Amino acid sequence: LQLHHSGRYHCRGWVSAAVPQWKESELVTVIELKVPLSGVPLGVQCPRGQVALRDSLVLSCTVAMGTGSLSLSWHQEGSEVLLGSSLCLELQHVGDNDSSQYRCRVNDGDSVAESDPLNVTIM
């Protein structure tokens, strides 16, 4: 069941009793409620957000709850440049410029939820 299935429904059928005829049920209203986005945890594939120079860093984002079509984006502090749009972001051969805060942002078309910032330090 999805949001676009909301509406009024009934069923109709041919009843072949003593006098055959079409019968129709009462109308029923179906409303699909949307679950708002919540809980956007951010994980990292290195201890305490520290990674060695020229290594790879993998960040992952998950959404605890939400309905509808979700779009995800990755952002670095101080920049609106889109870093990625999948559940995982892999930064290969990290350098000094990659030391920063990272967030994932999830949008369901009606609302936006962001993870807490993750501080990453390149050693």
TrEMBL record:
One Pfam family it belongs to: ig
Domain Ig-like intervals: 36-121
UniProt key word Coiled coil: no
Keywords: Immunoglobulin domain
SMART domains cross-referenced by the UniProt entry: IG
SUPFAM superfamilies per the UniProt record, alphabetical: Immunoglobulin
UniProt-listed PROSITE patterns: IG_LIKE
InterPro entries: Ig-like_dom, Ig-like_dom_sf, Ig-like_fold, Ig_sub, Immunoglobulin_dom
Protein name, UniProt field: FCRL2 protein
Native species: Emberiza fucata
Organism taxonomic ancestry: Eukaryota, Metazoa, Chordata, Craniata, Vertebrata
